[in-house]
Write a structure and sequence with these properties.
There is one protein chain. The protein is globular. The chain is built from seven helices and seven strands, in the order αβαβαβαβαββααβ. It has about 220 residues and is of the alpha/beta class. The longest helix is centred in the first third of the chain and has 15 residues, at about 25-40. Helix 2 crosses helix 6 (about 170-180), helix 3 packs antiparallel against helix 6 and helix 4 (about 95-105) packs across helix 5 (about 125-140). The two termini are about 15 Å apart.
Length: about 220
């Protein structure tokens, strides 16, 4: 499992940490929610950053509250909701880089070392997702591992190279967390049956039961 690879990335006495970055509320949960739940159960510190309130898809305040609740279910220790302009992140890449760099400098506990980033895929068809990928690659340039996760707007362009094999328990946690996004409940890709099919398909690709897949943006082992 790529979860276990984290233990080889630091020789310091610091606690291992990961950073998950999304453009909108629910991106992180959809792309790597089950994996984050597994990492949390393995005593990995998790900080999540959502760049927008997702106001173009519903009430921004409500969606931010939904993401806070959903990510806490997955075991995230800190959730930071930023307020960049939804659908216009391509105009704010420099500002996003500065925000992420500041978070890495000021929001990470002194006894935690961030060794992996989960972020958006660079071949995504949503302009906000591509902008977040670009900002992540610059701001997180000193972090040894950067993985891109799958979202509905990557279908047709997403070819994972690494997979996290997961027990059904962690997918149940993912589905529970996504159920907190009431404003998005009618979207087809949020339905539990669809999420299970996707997890089984990724698992079949590597002869496992259930998986989340990732593309490698950077991988130092």
């Amino acid at each position: 499992m790529i979860c276990m690879r984290l233990k080889n990335l630091t020789s310091s006495s610091k606690k291992i940490g990961v950073l998950a970055i999304g453009a909108h509320p629910d991106d992180i949960e959809l792309g790597c929610g089950a994996t984050l739940s597994l990492l949390s159960d393995n005593d990995i510190y998790i900080i999540s950053v959502i760049m927008t309130s997702g106001s173009c898809g519903g009430s921004g305040i409500q969606r931010s509250e939904e993401s806070q609740e959903a990510l806490r279910i997955l075991g995230c220790h800190k959730v930071i909701n930023l307020n960049f302009d939804d659908t216009k992140l391509y105009l704010q890449i420099k500002e996003m880089i500065c925000s992420l760099e500041k978070i890495l400098t000021t929001e990470i506990p002194s006894d935690v070392e961030i060794v992996r980033v989960y972020t958006m895929h660079n071949a995504d068809r949503h302009q906000d997702h591509v902008a977040v990928y670009q900002a992540s690659m610059v701001a997180c340039r000193n972090i040894p591992q950067i993985l891109g996760y799958e979202t509905p707007s990557t279908w047709g362009s997403f070819f994972p190279q690494v997979f996290e094999s997961l027990e059904s328990y962690y997918f149940e946690k993912k589905i529970l967390s996504l159920s907190k996004h009431k404003t998005q409940s009618l979207r087809k890709y949020m339905q539990p049956e669809h999420l299970w099919i996707q997890a089984k398909f990724r698992g079949q690709q590597v002869n496992c039961s259930l998986c989340e897949g990732f593309v490698v943006h950077r991988m130092i082992l």
